[in-house]
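Here's my example:
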Amino acid sequence: MNSETTQIIKKLLASPQKIVIVGHKNPDGDAIGSCLGLSFFLRRLGHKTNVIMPNDFPDFLKWLPGCEEIIIHDKDTDKSIATINNASVIFTLDFNALNRTGNMQQFLEDSDARFVMIDHHQAPEDYAVATYSDTSMSSTAEMVYHFIDALDELSILCMEVSTQLYTGIMTDTGSFRFPSTTATTHRVIAHLIEMGANNSEVHENIYDVNSLDRMKLLGVALKNLNILPEYNTAYITLSQKELDHHNFKKGDTEGFVNYALSLKGVKFAVIFIENKQDNIIKMSLRSKGEFSVNTLARKHYNGGGHTNAAGGRSTLTLSKTISEFISILPQYKNELTDAS
């Protein structure tokens, strides 16, 4: 975080503030971990904080310290709106365009609060009085750590904040295996462990607690895996019927796409998940090397993210979405076959 941004934020936080911290729609481990970590840290500085998420988050994150305090906008809209209207400062974390907050967008746009953005995605919007944006960062949770460092407050890190930030970094780096994981990331993680994060317990809570339904759904996903060897591409489909048959809950398909990407020779993988309620096909895209799924998702699927991990959506049927997807792959054949 540069010195100008640091000075703006120090001035904003020089006196006690009513602060709202917002994550993106369909929040993941980085959104939840970074928002809770920042919230607990700011409270230690004497500020009043509330975390608001546009909608609910997966059960495997609901053990995190403070998660029971999170306001879910879709479930408690009146409380969410009142809290936003009462805020003097609003931090937006792990997204950089207000439309990523779904039904919250208009209420945020109407707010008189001063906004601060902390995010690592590409092409940030210009709505904040202070923007800390760095696409090279592994996660927003790692950025919150550096934010705390820039304020010269690492000495007040506690077990709760360390656990929250560790969770965000671990989940957004695929347990520290994605290319965005740097030597600095590991130094941050080491310090968080020293300050109380129990690394083995976090991993167990996130990855090692599965329901029978989720395991059987994974079996269906693997059965539905298809390979397109001429494009070094693999994809998985899950229909609404298959989800319903296995009592699908938010977060159950987390990580499924990585099984497709792990196949020998595959450089690009996608999972297509039917969502009848929203009448869309949700897509998670992953890649290896320099092939940018962010570029593809932005161009074709109203999405985006990072070079090697992005999301998107289609309003076509599942079968038509697959057909369209296959039809656009020839545009990327050279990149896919040359990807390293």
The CA atoms of residues 60 and 209 lie 8 Å apart. The longest strand covers residues 268-275.
